[in-house]
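note to self: the first set is below, dont mix up w the second
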Amino acid sequence: VQVRQARPVEPREPVDFEKELRRQMEFYFSRENLKVDEYLSKHAVLPDGGESAMEAAEGSDDLRTVEVDPGVLKDGTRWPLEKICTFPRVARLCSDERIVGISNVVEATVKVLAGSELLETKLVAAEGKDTAETVYVLRKRDYTSDEITMTAQRTRESRILDDGHAAPCKYHVAGYCDRGSKCPSSHDAAYALAVESQWMDPEDDELTKKLHLICESLSLPKILPAKKVFFDSTDGAPEASDFDYLAVLDLEGRDEIIEFPVIILNGKTFNEEARFHEWVRPVELFNGRKLNPESTAITFDKVLNNFHEFLTAEGFLSGKIAFVTCGNWDLKSQVPKQCKICQIDTPAYMRSFINLKDIFNEHFFSRNRVTGMKGMMKRLSMLNNDGTIEGCHHLGMHDAENIARVLLRTVKAGGKLRYTYVPKDL
């Protein structure tokens, strides 16, 4: 895979977080939204008790009329943010990282959410009284304003890494992101190139240094760099599988595939042999959209052609190769669907595969079956102390690497690899 040079990126205007916060919160508790949002209307009880937010939205004179974007609200009425922050149950709708601000709720929220996504479930509540010194509460503990800034930074970085918000935006790199400036992931082309280059050659220290320098220049938390995958033979060599090579694959994309990363492992030693990665340009998904001119993505038929040439040149097709996925979606559903869109046949060697989740659940006799990569990593005590994974979750490159590590740990524990899905016509 050739490393492509990125063009300079035009600077983007900063997000007005106060404006965005007010718009989001006031919309959630607007008459129009409460008429259809059963969850909020049921749980958001007002300060005077008993009356639901829905009932209040139907008849209260305490609503104010504000100017709104055309089409957002038909009646243009919203609760003011200061009123929303006094609802007793608002705090209960927050996530574990909920913040209760005393004094200026907008100031408190901006301190914590600056640079991260304003999620619908991340509601903010306030005590409703002013103090001489602004005090914040995080997980029911009191902090001064200086302490909350440091704590919020650590919380935000942890959440950014785990949710993939420090990752390059997959859709932007593939050609188009419908979130635009509101996207929590990076749209910087140089950063996307640095992440891909370092992943392709994880043993190159210079690429790792370059990635960290770009993170600093963009004020992004330093992500843990990709690492080569190898079997820990401290307790002896592994039992060879029935396959010569294992291709660990983790596709990304909703309606169409946008990322295609693969790590090739030796089926006998379980050490890494090679890596392949391409960004994929959807055929139909971006129709009518103004595409990112810096995108290096290519259509899926060209990706498969490049991948076949890669497998042939490296000699991986000369032996028995099996694809390994975390679930059935990648190869049972999405690849055939994408091939149909591109009017090409699914490669024969990609029609059967090993679903690692099935192998994992069978071997460890799990009473509660794991349903994803992170669940397997948690069961194997592979998560960081704060519960996050190494790298960016839902970035295909990093997920493929973590799936490969879970595979090695499963094999080391005695798990037996076999095809979990074979088409009936094979």
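second set (the one i keep forgetting abt)
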Amino acid sequence: RNTTFIQFQSAHTREMPPVVKDERKSGIRGLFKTTALATVVATLTNVFFWSKKKKPAVKTVTLHKTQIRKLYRRVWNQPEQISRDHACSEYIHPEHILIDPSNPNPKPGVESYCNGVNALRQALPTIKMYIDDMIEQGCKVAVQLSFVASLGERKAKWTGTAVMEFEDDLIVKTWINTDSISAMIQLGLVNDLLRTNSGIGSEVATTTAGGAKITNKVPLRRDKEAVAAAQALLGRTEEHPTEVLTGKEWLEYFDAIQEEEWEHGSQMSQKELELQHDDLSGLDVVV
């Protein structure tokens, strides 16, 4: 009996290794599957990343911006009235309304829009409008504009901003703000409010292109409060410049001024440097 048990135990012992061998195989298979899956995921991730990274940036030009460029080219800058009136209906909504606080009773519609364009071009036949920049948000587009016009021998440059709202790919609302005061000063239609050589109630006669004389009066109030209010509203304390820069010209001028101030600041004298420091408090003085 002992011999039989030993033989049975030996036989049973010999049968165990195949079971252990199968578990090792399944573990190796599972490890291989996990490694292969990780490799595939890593490969797909790299392909997606590099495809995104190497994809060139494309500048999008929306339909609304394109329509606005055509509007100013074919309507506002078009010298022929028939062509202007015909093109208006392609960009302006039949229920278009101009939102301007200075015009509290605007008339809606394409015809009213065309009348406004025609009135401006009849008064200033040489006027040109340039789009400096556009920003789009939803159904609205903000347009930064520069204007150039002449009246007789006088020329003017000024800026403005227009916001246009679209409906069914047509402009249904327009908000407009322009520096009309600057334009009228440059064209000699009004006197500068900050002119220092103007007396109270004095009159200045100017001549237009047709030879007719226009008499302009300076502001009735020249007291300290009136001057301060005028300076705040106009955003300047000096007289109106004889030459106005707009668009890229103004940016180039601003950069030149900044560079000149920087060069001047880097070459300050010892006396100027001492003015930047307060000896009593030991603090720097902002100038």
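remember for set 2: The first strand starts at residue 92 and ends at 99.
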